Amino acid sequence: MTGPLPSFDAIRLAIAGGDTSAVDVCRQALDRIAAGDGRLNAFNHVMRERALQRAAELDASRRADDPRPLLGVPIAVKDNLCTRGAPTTASSRILESFVPPYDATVVSRLEAAGAVVVGKTNCDEFAMGSSNENSAFGPVRNPWDPARSPGGSSGGSAAAVAARFVPGALGSDTGGSVRQPASLCGVVGLKPTYGRVSRYGLLAFASSLDQIGPLALTVRDAARLLEVIAGADARDATTSPEAVPRYTDALTGDLRGVRLGVPSTLLADGVDAEVERAFLQARDTLQAAGATISDVALPHTVYAIPAYYLIANAEASSNLARYDGVRYTSRAPLDPADATLTAMYDRTRSEGFGAEVKRRIMLGTYALSAGYYDAHYLKAQQVRTLIRRDYERALGTVDAVLMPTSPVPAFPLGERLDDPLQMYLLDVFTVSANLTGLPAISVPAGFTQARLPIGVQLVGRAFDEETLLRIADSYERLVMWWKEAPPAS
Amino acid sequence: MTTPLTKADVERIAELAHLELSDAETEAFTRQLAEILAMAMRLQEVDTTNVPPTTHVLSRHEALRPDEVRASLTRAEALANAPDGTPEEGFFKVPKVLE
Hints:
Distance between the termini of chain A: 9 Å
Number of strands of chain A: 11
Largest sheet of chain B: 2 strands, antiparallel
Strand content of chain A: 5-15%
Low-confidence stretches of chain A: none
Structural class of chain B: mainly alpha
Strand order of the largest sheet of chain B: 1-2
Number of strands of chain B: 2
Order of helices and strands of chain A: HHEHEHEHEHEEHEHEHHHHEHHEEH
Radius of gyration of chain B: 23 Å
Largest sheet of chain A: 11 strands, mixed
Strand order of the largest sheet of chain A: 1-3-2-4-6-5-10-11-9-7-8
Oligomer: heterodimer
Number of helices of chain A: 15
Order of helices and strands of chain B: HHHEE
Strand content of chain B: under 5%
Largest interface: A-B, 75 and 50 residues
Mean pLDDT of chain A: 96
Shape of chain B: flat
Number of helices of chain B: 3
Helix content of chain B: 25-40%
Radius of gyration of chain A: 21 Å
Mean pLDDT of chain B: 89
Low-confidence stretches of chain B: none
């Protein structure tokens, strides 16, 4: 089905009012997945029984004035978020049969808010990648053109929303992994401020950069999801105690007085001509509706990619040390003549991890090793401070920085696989928000001639997702790109 | 700027990272890591004199809490995913480490 999907509020009200049931809504989502996912490969695991049972419980407990904000809304979650009793693989062979004994905090919060978690979405292995081709279970295909990548690493979540399988999903964003696939699939993707959403139960990639974020068809639905998942959690000491506003109340549609900054030098080269055209059009639309546009200087952001890849991979090499053949399901068979502890570690990890994960562990190990730590890791953390200062200065004069999300639209599967460096350069506009901890959102901004979606990105002040969402929602009301659906199979 | 990275360096890093690489992987990683590190060397252009490294992006709050006993996973749950666990006795089993 490619018709309009109802909003979260429409689903909630229809179920609360008895016009439909949570079981029917859930079954329809499961049917859409069953009919369409053979083509897209967006799901690693569909939680059919658990979802239907959960929906039946909601039907039994629903009330006309039901306060649960996501009552009966089917949601997909990335397969690096723990679901009690349901497989959680991070798209890695090494976790192929891992079944967590607990739910991630975001999963508990979704369910407490009445959502029905329908399945686990495919992603790059351990969220490492920008194309979804690093999944041990095969790439996800872009609903707008199945020969192309949906982006990554939350490609399954973005594709599942774009294909209208589910109205919303969660992903994780370490260097753009929610925003870039949102851009390439034509949906909304938000990376909240670092510390806004609990990471408890998220399989860690780079702990100082990782943040869980929502994907949805509209800014309003993304805001609703953030309302549900945000907030302090005793199980994640990096969560902020700051109160969680009702983000949907901030969506006034008013752009008057909004000041936006464009980092022109960053856009000077390497941006696809059609992406640039869509970006300039979005800028003009915002300006015509009352926003003021000025140039902002972010001089150190040209160093964001090297700083990011050193820091992220150093943290990854440390975080992934836990996959050692002892605790998490996989252990390589050992020759009795060489059944040593070291052989167990080495063989289990070599068989269990894919090429990109090994490459990143190697890079991170190198950056942290004796003799290289100061030159690489420490230097990168100092440059990170300079990038943070750039943004602090810029956001002292503007309310948000406006730039493309990805320098290119969706690219053919296989095109960049043999050149990891070229793949890393795709993250040029997204990694800074992770290095600085700032919130950032990608919103659909039109299409290429070949009907591939293009997104624009806004980066805002820490813990001020309200301003970001208000600007994004105002823009969305003017352009309504979300009403465009991809072709059916 | 190029980073001299030899096959021997890659083998040493693999050992530190507890990875066994095939010859083809070692060869590919030697080339790819050299390219990536050459890009990383751009950071050396930046003057970072007296710039503190970032340790926390947004440290606005104390993260201390009372040290109280709380419910957590049972031993059986914690051992359930172990490839060679003994939930009854409460052990993870590994190859022999002492003669």
